[in-house]
Design a protein that fits this description.
Layout: H1 3-7, H2 13-16, H3 19-36, H4 41-63, H5 68-93, H6 99-110, E1 117-124, E2 128-136, H7 137-144, H8 151-162, E3 168-171, E4 183-189
Antiparallel strand pairs: 1-2, 2-4, 3-4
Helix pairs in contact: 3-4, 4-5, 4-7, 5-8
Length: about 200
């Protein structure tokens, strides 16, 4: 879905006109900025896939004359829409018996190394998977691109993706992207007898 189509009827035509082309231009410029930093290839790949699109959209709205707050709210709206899709998929997977074990495996594998996250597993069993993230590529990228205020959107999306799933509880008290000292992820399996 194009941004123009997503925001159609909610934004003035002068803002929507050419918004997708402007987003593409901003993406190219941000990739040039990223290439000037000291990022690994793995980090740059993740930035291009999951992070800089929001920043490009944010900058596009600002260049169209919107305030930073207005631009942030619009980016949040689109991000929440995408997070809802991921939530539906994850929710479907959690209907599979024993999926919590598979979920823990993929979380542990995904957070391995220190290029994307620097994390420490606190608990990993059939009842709970908890991990403290001490460094995060999303927060680092937003800071590098001088829009740390935007990282909050990524953090809030986690609550949409992982929240409201029967038999599964997601808890977190702070995030690096919202001025916390860490991201304290905690996933609790409430389904009895499932390993």
């Amino acid at each position: 879905m194009t941004y123009e189509k997503f925001y159609s009827g909610r934004l003035d035509e002068h803002i929507l006109d050419g918004i997708d082309a402007e987003h593409k231009k901003k993406m190219k410029l941000i990739i040039e900025e990223i290439n000037q930093g000291e990022w690994t290839e793995k980090q740059k790949k993740r930035q291009k896939k999951s992070i800089i699109s929001n920043i490009a959209l944010y900058r596009s709205f600002i260049d169209k004359g919107l305030s930073k707050n207005e631009a942030k709210e619009l980016v949040k709206e689109y991000s929440f829409h995408i997070a809802e899709k991921a939530h539906k998929l994850l929710n479907a997977f959690f209907h599979i018996p024993g999926f919590f074990g598979l979920f823990r495996f993929f979380m542990k594998k995904g957070m391995a190394g220190d290029e994307i996250w620097n994390s420490m597993i606190l608990s990993n069993d059939s009842k709970c998977y908890s991990v403290d993230v001490l460094k995060c590529l999303w927060a680092d990228t937003c800071s590098f691109l001088k829009c740390p205020e935007l990282c909050e959107i990524f953090c809030l999306c986690d609550h949409i993706v992982f929240g409201n799933i029967k038999g599964f509880v997601f808890e977190r008290s702070q995030t690096l992207g919202m001025n916390g000292k860490k991201c304290d992820f905690c996933f609790i399996n409430k389904k009895r007898g499932i390993k």
